[in-house]
Structure prediction request, 618 residues.
Amino acid sequence: MKDFRLIVLFAVGFAVLPWFTHSGVLLNALMMALFACLMSQSWNILGGFGGQLSFGHALFFGTGAYAQAIFQMQYGVNPWAALALAVSISSLLGGVLGWISFRYGLRGSYFALITLAFAEVFRILSLSSTITGAGVGLMLPLSESFGNMQFSGKTGFIELILCMNVIALLITLWLKNSRLGAYLQAVRDNEDAAKALGVNPLKVKFFAISISAALMGAAGCFYVQVFQYIDPNLAYGAHTSVAALVGAIVGGMGTLWGPVLGAFALELLSSLTRNFLGELPGINMVVYGSLLIAIIMFLPKGLIGLFSSMGAKSQVRGGIAVDSKLKS
Amino acid sequence: MFDAGIIYSSLLNGLTSGAVYILIALGLTLIYGVLHIINFAHGAALMLALYGVYFLKVNLGLDPYWSLLIMVPVMFVLGYALQRLVIERASHGKDENILLVTLGLSIVLENLALLFFKSDTRNIETAYTLTTVAVGPAMIALPKIIACLGAACMSLLLIGMMKFTKIGLAIRAVAKEKQGARLMGIDVEHVYAMSFGIGLACLGAAACFLLPAYYVNPSVGGGFVLVAFTVVVLGGMGSFTGAVVGGLLIGVVESLGGLFMGDSLGQVGIFMLFIIVLLIRPQGLFGAKR
Prediction:
């Protein structure tokens, strides 16, 4: 119940916050933080709760983004309907990828590798296919209206990404407390033991990757609506996969609030480095990478581990390593 | 539709780029064989070594092949130190942490290079860069021939080291049974660091053979490393023979794929092969069934 009340607080707090400020910088930072939040929460469902570390989550992001753009531009679909379609397509792709890789028993580093390879295949294909606009990318025509999902100010976009985040949080909360979530965490901690107790690991991991991919696809749709442009490197580039993963790990894997905390901390840190060091190429990624190493080294439970009283119940990070063996 | 001459030269080209893949994959497969973990920082370390060779040539005028004497020990020390000071301490005994830390290292190294060296693509000019040698009816650049010989020497050296030296024996023992090796008095952490060091030393050598024929930029590692992963997975994780056969095979597939389907689809061909091997035969061609 406490978590549910916190989600309501989160929703109401950020919904009214834009009415109190006119600072474009602040609103933009809030929007980008919430955007990062959604990606981290998506990664967390598969990586944190499911223990399947994906290094290629950009695959779902890019597919959602391209689907959102293509449905509107090629087929004249309303953006809200396109959003539903794009999220379903990402989710379906996640399901297919999950089905084939879990079906063949890929775990640990092998799963990380195959997600990376899939993202790379999609990047190369989208570079050479005409429907994705090849290297030029796709540019969404500007036409601001609610029906068109293009808002004149940042506030509208903040409310949109906030809605997506609240849905993601509610799904995660449900996952944390539901039977399926318990199965998923059991599979993460010890797949063979879970199997022996009658859990079907293939099925629960399949659900986890489908949900995770759907949320990541939604983040892609949001990106296209805000920036009205997508190209192969923005869609399937490694930096998106890294941002999703680092946010979840820095905040605390397998917790409800960890990814939120991690994403906001990263956004704060990257705007601080921007302010002090200026706009340097790659500096953001240096910060992300160093933070990833430092957190794993010194705070393996993530930032949320620091608030042990608050996060005590939600710390379900298992003590058993992901087995690097291929097949049981 | 293609005459035999073009196919022959494309085949030869494939074999020479395969040799380069072998150079990179040898270190990767050694690290995998012992630590049972994929070193995601492998591409970034290669990029670093390439910059090392580049700056030795540009600032000190050192020939890339003489740089071998500097780059191999430097990369060894770097690898040893990285394993001892970063990876070992961050792992907390979990494989997934090693995976994430090597990913973090690759992100940091690649973007530091971008920060300091900018995204310019650089290459070096040597007296023999444009020299070509006739191999049968086709012409091949001399640096590529030397890279082939280098790959052959290094594979033999590594296989010899694993078979006949004490550290090779220790590495094999730790790879097979960590706890047992520890009980026999082997310093497992030292062996881990040695393997990581040797793995990166291979990259130091690879960089010296590579640079005369290729180029360096901050993201050069990413392109090579996915191919090297493919080579290692295809050949069988931890198998040196597998890396050699896998490297040559991938080189030929890429070259012939590029000839028949165009360059970018040739790349997709490699990744598809990678995915199919991972799914259907994850132990590779020469790997033991796990």
About this structure: Residues 16-118+129-218 of chain B form one domain. The CA atoms of residues 29 and 237 of chain B lie 6 Å apart.
